[in-house]
Amino acid sequence: MDGRVCVPRLAALCLGLFALMGSMQPSPARAERRTWRVRGGDALSIIAERFGVSVSDIRHWNRLDSDVIQVGQELYVAPEAEADRYRVQAGDTLSQLAERLQVSMEAILQANEGLDPNRIRIGQSIRLPRQGPRTEYRVRQGDRLTRIAKRYGVHVSEILRWNRGLDPNRLRPGQTLVLLAEPLPPPSQSVGAPNGGSLMHGVKLLPHPAYVIRNPERSYGTQETIDALQEGFQIVQRQHPGAPKVRVHDISHPAGGTMFGHRSHQSGRDVDLSLFHRRGCAESGCLFRRIHPSELDVGPQWTLLLSWLRRNRVEAAFLDYALQKPLYEEARRRGASRRQLNRWFQYPRPVDQPVGLIRHYPKHRDHVHVRFRCPADDSECR
User: Fold this and answer.
1) Which of 74, 176, 182, 221 has a C-alpha 20 to 30 A away from that of 328?
2) Given pLDDT bands bounded at 50, 70 and 90, which one contains residue 20?
3) For 37-59, what is each residue's pLDDT tens digit?
4) Which of 148, 147, 173 is nearest to 162 (CA)?
5) What's the burial of 220, exposed, middle or buried (CB within 10 Å: 0-12/13-18/19+)?
6) Residue 252 in contact with residue 328, Cβ under 8 Å?
7) pLDDT category, 131, cuts 50, 70, 90?
8) How many CA atoms lie within 13 A of 36 on its CB side?
């Protein structure tokens, strides 16, 4: 006997013929499940480094289609073998496993593509379907499954699995959906224009070894802004380990609005950063002071800007015209194409032509003012 037996699909699915069936217990790997609830300022790169894994690992374990994560979202940060699987033991049946997990056998089968319910075996690793509190969601006018899934931190495929027969193209207002998840905290939102707007559910910038925050109460932004800052400085720290710290002066107030000393910085997308200096920076970071182009540390400075330009995150970066030349030359040295240079820089066009993403603005010889783009799904952002 090989320890396996075939039975009809809807009957008790068993692992062989055993006179005595032991009680079902989670494998030790399941008991060691490791998760992380996303905090403000988190990014996949930061979480991956924190737990000693790769970004691609976290994306794979959580079935993420992109690097976008939400505050409050729970992520697996250990391999699936430890975090989201069950190893079959003698006496186990799928029906018992489904009953213990309070999910359907069909959910287990759908979570394990290619699993033959009639031929499971001792030691086999079975993926466990996502579990969570049962929530009934009433469909609203204009709802789409993609928006509902994002709101609850799940995938559309999971909503379809929890609601058999649901047609994703025919949602009706008032229709009730079953969701095995809790809603995530409301997302940040940039409302209005940078010089006449506000910030909803602002996310606070957290400390980082590569920068110093001047005033925590003026360091709130959209989730996208905070993510971009954290990711950019993470890249700088990795590529330029000896670079000095810079100072993050101002982003926005927790709820945005007018900020003393600024006309903009009202909607969570504007950030003032001191420049990387070749020398003279203290532990408290490079200060805001006018510098000669030869004093600019172009290596880390261009790495930081490039991390945002490559991902099309920058609406504008305001910097004194004289400081653009050494950055332009560094970009060209690193292989930027003529088309990229023309799009990214105002230089070498005249100072009175405000074109390019990096463009001249008076009184910006001691810092760079970066304005990040509106999030694609934020209809209130201007």
Assistant:
1) 221
2) very low
3) 787 778 888 888 777 777 877 88
4) 148
5) buried
6) no
7) low
8) 21
pLDDT (average), residues 225-254: 94
What span, in angstroms and rounded, lies between the C-alpha atoms of 285 and 209? 10
Joined tokens for residue 53: 């894994």
Listed residue (235, 231, 229, 182) closest to 204, CA to CA: 229
Tokens of 300: 């880390």
Q: How far out from the chain centre does Cα 98 lie?
A: 32
Strands, sheet with 211-213, edge to edge from the N-terminal-most edge strand: 211-213, 246-248, 270-274, 367-372, 314-318, 358-359
Which of 166, 168, 179 is CA-nearest to residue 143?
168
Q: Rounded to two decimals, what is the model's pTM? A: 0.62
- The single residue listed with the structure tokens 């993470």 is 234
296: its two tokens: 């600019």
| Nearest partner of 206 among 47, 52, 381, judged by Cα | 47
For 176, the token pair is 């009730």
Sign of CA dihedral 281, 285, 290, 294: positive
pLDDT value, residue 84: 64
Q: Under 8 Å CB-to-CB from 303, ≥6 apart: which residues?
A: 235, 236, 239, 240
pLDDT tier at 29, thresholds 50, 70, 90: very low
